[in-house]
Design goal:
Helix 9 (179-192) runs antiparallel to helix 10 (198-210). The protein has helices spanning 17-26, 30-43, 53-73, 80-94, 99-109, 114-125, 137-148, 155-166, 179-192, 198-210, 212-216, 220-227, 231-242, 289-298, 305-338, 340-345, 355-362, 366-372, 405-417, 427-436, 443-452, 458-461; strands at 47-49, 264-269, 272-277, 285-287, 377-380, 383-386, 394-396, 402-404. The protein contains 22 helices and eight strands. The chain is flat, with a radius of gyration of 27 Å. The protein is of the alpha+beta class.
């Protein structure tokens, strides 16, 4: 047997644990971050964590409603099994699993290389609350490539493999780009598992992929003619479609918190609106000074390997938290710099703004800005707003300028509030009034914005 030595260059893709942690921390709300840091400190003795009194106070107040039944039960005889049942119920109420956590559990159980797990976890973090992947694929591909700092990798192929794997996870339909793909993925799962009449589901898939818009308008005749099926067959397929979940992430949705701790505050200073970090929102976490001193005195080389690893992980956490705070403040400053009129005039002063503008200004990717603007809040004299509120689409005006959709909604609200109660203004006339001000808005667009504002139709507003 001949023995030979060969050199082989093998490039592997992996998102480092530090990078994965940074991405995860960036998308957490203050309440979620508090829980994450408490768990990290519990697992790592080299981390010192002091619970935020404001968040802790709010959580304890919220839990009063949950703890009340426990006090009542204490007055009656109960077994240890009852106690265990209470703890289980309480924990289930206290922490409702998120879609991302649900996906991460599945990803960790997959028998795939670590680098593919990393990319899959990254993609799961890009999903919106519905479970849809709305970020531009090219942007995600570029961000992964930039983060890995690799030039010769076929990242597009790796990304495609990750997307295909993501779509196989539960709940069915997750990872879809749009409603049609979401429904189609669910039908594929049903066909694979041989649930129900296969012919009905095959027809349902054909309708979803080619005639979904006709289902909404109930145009059975055109669907029947296009598919070459009877109306009875079409209606059976439509019933199958209606049984599917349009929002795979719905079961993981949480009620909006009534109490919010703003990340930053906006104040007037020298005629300008400026941003300051909220000191009350600052995470209280640091390295354990005693352990750090022991490591320094004994020398890193003599230190136990497990202890050195814990110190490394603790240092990552502290650095990533600091980076998170810095990124949130930078994004907030860019938003406020572009929305100065909003803080002076209210919603009518909102200018059109998209994530790309902030991303380009800060030399970040849009997906990073998307994470920063989700569940992060600013306080100002007008109230408390999520960062995402300040992003809206652009509508053109006859004057050659542009107005944001949020500002148009504010104008519609003003028109309705000032209308005569005995003669409310129709959507057509609202569109005309806006046109007179130089904003050409279609009647159906007015209707869409009116519904978004929860303003009833004209016939329901008449006194």
């Amino acid at each position: 047997m001949a023995i030979s030595l060969n050199n082989r260059l093998n490039t592997q893709v992996s998102l480092t644990p530090q990078l994965q942690q940074a991405i995860k921390l960036l998308q957490l709300s203050n309440n979620e971050l508090e829980q994450e840091l408490a768990k990290a400190a519990e697992d790592n003795p080299l981390l010192e964590f002091e619970p935020n009194p404001e968040i802790e106070s709010n959580l304890s107040q919220s839990n009063e409603r949950i703890e009340a039944p426990q006090n009542n039960w204490s007055n009656t005889s109960q077994s240890s099994q009852d106690d265990e049942d209470w703890v289980e119920r309480y924990e289930r109420v206290a922490h409702q699993q998120t879609l991302l956590e649900h996906l991460e559990e599945q990803i960790h159980l997959l028998h795939i290389p670590p680098q593919e797990q990393s990319i899959l976890t990254y993609l799961a973090g890009c999903l919106d609350e519905r479970g849809y992947l709305i970020d531009d694929i090219e942007t995600i591909n570029a961000e992964i490539g930039a983060l890995l700092q690799e030039q010769d990798l076929n990242s597009a192929e790796l990304l495609e493999r990750g997307l295909n794997q993501l779509k196989l996870l539960d709940p069915p339909g997750v990872g879809a780009r749009n409603l049609a793909e979401c429904l189609s993925l669910q039908i594929d799962r049903i066909l694979d598992e041989q649930q129900g009449n296969a012919d009905d589901w095959q027809l349902a898939k054909l309708i979803v992929n080619t005639h979904l818009n006709k289902v909404g308008s109930k145009d059975w005749l055109k669907i029947k003619q296009a598919c070459g099926k009877s109306q009875a067959e079409v209606l059976k397929a439509v019933e199958c479609i209606r049984s599917l979940q349009h929002n795979p992430g719905a079961q993981f949705e949480r009620e909006h918190d009534q109490w919010v701790l703003p990340d930053v505050a906006v104040k007037a200073k020298n005629g300008q609106w400026v941003v300051e970090s909220n000191p009350n929102a600052k995470p209280r976490i640091s390295l354990n000074s005693e352990y750090a001193r022991i490591l320094k005195e004994n020398g890193q080389k003599k230190a136990d390997g497990a202890l050195k690893q814990k110190m490394l992980e603790a240092s990552w956490m502290v650095k990533n938290i600091a980076q998170r705070e810095e990124t949130i403040l930078k994004v907030a400053q860019e938003i406020v710099a572009r929305q100065q009129k909003f803080f002076s005039m209210g919603a009518v002063g909102m200018r059109p703004l998209v994530l790309r503008e902030i991303a380009e200004s800060l030399n970040m990717h849009e997906s990073t800005i998307s994470r920063v603007t989700t569940q992060k809040y600013l306080s100002c004299p007008l109230g408390i707003y999520e960062f995402k509120y300040f992003f809206s689409s652009q509508l053109s005006s006859e004057k050659g300028g542009a107005i944001s959709s949020t500002a148009v909604q504010a104008l519609i609200k003003q028109i309705v509030e000032n209308e005569p109660s005995t003669k409310p203004i129709s959507d057509t006339n609202i569109a005309k009034l806006l046109s007179d001000q130089g904003y050409v808005i279609a009647r159906r667009t007015v209707a869409k914005y009116r519904e978004a504002l929860r303003i009833p139709a004209v016939h329901l507003r008449k006194a």
